[in-house]
Amino acid sequence: MARRILWASLALTPLVVIARFGFDAGATLLFCLAALALLPLAWLIGEATDHAAEHTGHGVGGFLNASFGNAPELIIAFFAVADGLPNVVRGAIAGSVVSNILLVLGVAMIAGGDGRVDARSLRWQLFAVFGAMILILIPSIPRWTGDPSRHALYVATLPVAAVLLAAYVVITVRNLRIHRAADRKEANEKAWTLRRSLAWLAVATAATAIVSEILVHSLEDFGHAVGLHEFFIAAVIVAIVGNAAEHGGAVVIAHRGNTELATEIAISSSMQVAVFVAPAVALLSWIVGAGLPLSFRVVEVVTMAAAAVFATLVIWDGRSRRWEGFVLVGVYGAVAVAYFLS
């Protein structure tokens, strides 16, 4: 019954599009409809990834989920750059890194309970996030005493972005090689074919991109209506809601007892945002507007680096424990409060 309801709920996606372009609905209504529409899409991405992982293994499955899940975020970032909202883009990137590491990983551990995680793969990816924060200090430190969007900071961003993208390729290839040897197994006879799984992932990702774009464009008016400032909207609301499909997929998979894949999704997504999405948006931002410097605020850099260090300590022994999940969620709550007060 639950599966039938979720399949039927996918009809919310065309409903959101019709409300936006057919009836020019208000921002609050669009925000609520888009948020609801993302829930069944979250389930579909998780379902398709779980079936794909039956053929590819946990490591590749986590990579696929993170890649498809972050595609809408990349699209959203370009929309925000084109709209002249660089602080929203940087805030959303920081919030996405932190929410994936702390909130998604924590909720996945709570939902999955005690289980095994691939500590070797996760450690490498968390080290990459921390290393990205060190490199990002190059354009970020000068912004703390001046205009965060000045052209000189964009020039300083270009070599940093190039190094991050090169590191992403190296890390991804290395992880896929590790999992290629470790994850070989026979797929469950009830699993979808790999082609069908990838097709549903592509459809769900495209729908998520459309719904997320509508949601983000309604967020500013929604934020003004409820009295929230731009940074909090970007770092918390955009980061969580814009990634709702991916977050939900990890939690659904963890609830089914597959903590290894769920934790891989959470950390892979965070690493991709820090080492791929951020530099890719920076390098390509001139196409849709002024160049986007990776010049983050102090609170953004500190919370991203601290989240990576904290999660590394949690997963170091290769085990997932429910109480550790509660701790991670509690830390994210503290970060959200810091974002609200900053």
Name the features.
342 residues; mainly alpha; A middle domain of Talin 1; two-stranded antiparallel ribbon; 83% helix
Describe the structure.
The protein has 342 residues and is an all-alpha fold. The chain has one domain (2-184, 192-341): A middle domain of Talin 1 (Up-down Bundle). 83% of the residues lie in helices and 1% in strands. The chain has helices spanning 2-9, 12-21, 27-56, 58-82, 86-112, 119-143, 151-182, 194-226, 230-242, 244-255, 259-288, 298-315, 322-341, and strands at residues 115-116, 319-320. The chain has a two-stranded antiparallel ribbon. The chain is globular and about 60 Å long. The mean pLDDT is 83.
Structure described in brief:
The chain has helices at 2-9, 12-21, 27-56, 58-82, 86-112, 119-143, 151-182, 194-226, 230-242, 244-255, 259-288, 298-315, 322-341, and strands at residues 115-116, 319-320. Helix content is 83%, strand content 1%. The protein has a single domain, classed as NCX, central ion-binding region (A middle domain of Talin 1, Up-down Bundle), CATH 1.20.1420.30.
List the helices and strands and how they pair.
Elements (H helix, E strand, L loop, with lengths): L1 H8 L2 H10 L5 H30 L1 H25 L3 H27 L2 E2 L2 H25 L7 H32 L11 H33 L3 H13 L1 H12 L3 H30 L9 H18 L3 E2 L1 H20 L1
Helix pairs in contact: 2-3, 2-8, 3-4, 3-8, 3-10, 4-5, 4-7, 4-8, 4-11, 5-9, 5-10, 5-11, 5-12, 5-13, 6-7, 6-11, 6-12, 7-11, 8-9, 10-11, 12-13
Helix content: over 70%
What's the CATH first level?
Answer: Mainly Alpha
What distance lies between the first and last C-alpha atoms, to the nearest angstrom?
45 Å
What is the global morphology?
A: globular
The structure class reads: mainly alpha
Strand elements, count: 2
Number of helices: 13
Name of the CATH superfamily: NCX, central ion-binding region
CATH architecture: Up-down Bundle
How would you write the strand order of the largest sheet?
1-2
Our estimate of the beta-strand percent is: under 5%
Mean pLDDT: 83
What composes the largest sheet? 2 strands, antiparallel
